[in-house]
Amino acid sequence: MKAPQLSLDPRAGELLAQAQEWRLIGRLFERPTAAWREDVARLAEGCTDPLLRAAGALAQQADEGEYHALLGPGGVLPAREAGYRRTADPARSLAEIRSFHAAFAFEARHEDPIDHLSVLCGFVAWLYFKEAYALAADDAEAAEVTREAAARFVRAHLAPCAEPLAAQLEPLEVEPLRSAAQALLARTGPRPTNVEGDWVPHGLAVDECTVSCALGAAAESAPDEGDELPPEFTAGLPRDLL
Known about the structure:
Layout: H1 10-28, H2 34-45, H3 50-58, H4 64-71, H5 90-103, H6 117-136, H7 140-169, H8 177-188, H9 211-217, H10 231-234
């Protein structure tokens, strides 16, 4: 007797492919190691995005010293969201990221902080995977909640970083970081104009950026430490999806 044939919703298949691409982008922003090269090569093999496939091949020659000089703790370019935000309280941003992770059962098993580009992209990959799972389980409501959460997370935590990072890496011959930044920008779009908050670090209130301009630019506030995601992002999610 033949085993029953299982069919995957075409949309779920597309989501899994996008999850793989986001996972690869996140890995490309991590410190190069031997295990990293193997993982990047496997992820790149199945990508249809030519930019990411090329980045995967270029990653085999990635230099750890060059990575540290650019994106390491003492590097010249920020690898964390906080480095791209002028008037958003980093503690509140971290609290919101933790809330997202808790709501969608994500464990950041990385050596990098949770607002590092590698972890931020890895979480988006997880959300695409969760949405695909919800569709496969025929749970349209859970899929919609997850899709909305992914869009909000990308806009709030990755869109502020992608454009300035790509611009800074563009004139440099540093692969695969340059390609990874371009691939990220293609998925986030330009930096939003209203991503800042109502907090100005000491000494930063200069003519072009004051408390009043920060308040005027604030579009939405992040939850305080310990808060959960708003109900509209968790309503309808089954317990095994949270």
